[in-house]
Amino acid sequence: PADQPRQRKILTFMLELRRLFALLAYSTRPSVNPSSFIVAMLDLKPPSLKMEYGAQEDGTEINDLFVDLIEEAFALRTKLDNNPPSPPPPNIVRQQFDADMLGEVRKPGRDAEHRRLSVKQLVLDIAGGSLEDSLDAYMHATVRLDPDADAVPKVSSFERLPEILSIQLQRTGFDRDTQEPSKRHDAFHFPDTLHMRRYLHAQVPLREQIRERRQAKRDLDDQLRRLTNYDHGTASVVDVLGQAISVMGRSASLLGVSDAEAETDAAAISLVHLNELRAAFGGRQAELRRQTDAVESEVGALVEQAAGDVYRLYGVLVHRGSHAAGHYWSFVRDPRYARWLRFDDERVTEVQASEVMRDSCGGATADASAYCLFYIADSTLRRISQIHDEQVVEKLPRSLKDFVLRDDDLEDRVDRMLPRSYFRWR
Question: Which of 57, 129, 187, 230 could form a disulfide with 363 if both were Cys (CB 3.0 to 4.6 A apart)?
């Protein structure tokens, strides 16, 4: 038995977690009440976290606390073991959630500095508009090592990828008009399948090559846009010049200018120049399209070369509302039945993948958007998909099965005493 108060609380936390898991796996109830587990978890929170049972809390803070407590519990289990195994068992929390990263700070005229760190969650800005662009921005950032010094480039990469990749999207902004924090539901797109190999340390040269060619394509796209959307409109420069030539030709005809006069007329000379300009701009437009297609093919080949270490979207946490209030729900992939489930308080419903994206990607008129994404390694997902409910139940200890049966029996007795309308009203 644990003698220290915190050790006893950790053991209570793990007991309530086991009971909650058993209820989820074995209970006949349509939903289970996690109150006892939540109370046990909040009883262990550090003083810096202002969490209260029954209050709306940030989902990422709850997740961080949960993972940290699980890790502490496994460490305590090893500490209290009278015959600890040798070598010690692997840290399964770290294996599943921690990513080992290497940061390379490049100072002008000096050797690069390498800094290693372990992270349980990537925090990405949504300014890129897509997960791919935001990951690239995260991996290639600038840092200011000293308040008086210039910012220097920092290149980050993974030395080890976790089984579960947790990503938090920074959707909190600042409203200059109200001088208060605001919630950003800007459009942000993320794929169902994510290739992470190119973000490994060994792939930094290839990733930088992809980044350089993508920037080249953006530059070409910008040049082409200026030609095809003249003066922020929908017409191209070639079309505008063509219209000008047509107008000048009709004007000369209406004024009754003869062909002989037109040959020496300034307007005719201008027409010649306009036709030359139109041909030049048309050629430049065609050349830019050719170069853009070529660079796009190069990028595609490089991305294909960097493909691998596949991750699948497994869960999405969604928030509707403002910075100060709102409503949370989650989408979770069920790989065993190739479906998505929506968890909204006590309601669990099956949904289409299109609904997941519709409610999660945000947009100009959206009032809800994803703020946490969970990707799981494809190999781990395949392993999970082979686990069936019956196998989970068979591995439950007898004591947990009895606990679930007693809980189900209590629900049956309450059902007989109180009508269902009572619970709907509550």
Answer: 187
d(CA 401, CA 393): 8
Q: Which band of pLDDT confidence, cut at 50, 70 and 90, is reported for residue 76?
A: confident
Q: Are 367 and 185 in contact (CB under 8 A)?
A: yes
**Do the strands 140-143 and 172-175 form a parallel or antiparallel pair, or are they unpaired?**
unpaired
pTM of the model: 0.77
Residue 419: count of CB within 10 angstroms of its CB: 10
> pLDDT per residue over 149-207, tens digit each?
677 888 899 999 999 999 999 888 777 777 777 888 999 999 999 999 999 999 988 98
The more confidently predicted of residues 389 and 185 is 185
For helices 398-417 and 5-26, what crossing angle results, to 10°?
Answer: 70
Ramachandran angles phi, psi of 37, nearest 5°: -65, -45
CB 53 within 8 A of CB 42: yes
Instruction: For 163-181, give the secondary structure using H, E and C.
Output: CEEEEEEECEEEECCCCEE
pLDDT of 44-70, one tens digit each? Answer: 988 877 776 666 666 777 888 888 899
Contact assessment for residue 277 and residue 285, using Cβ atoms and an 8 Å cutoff: no
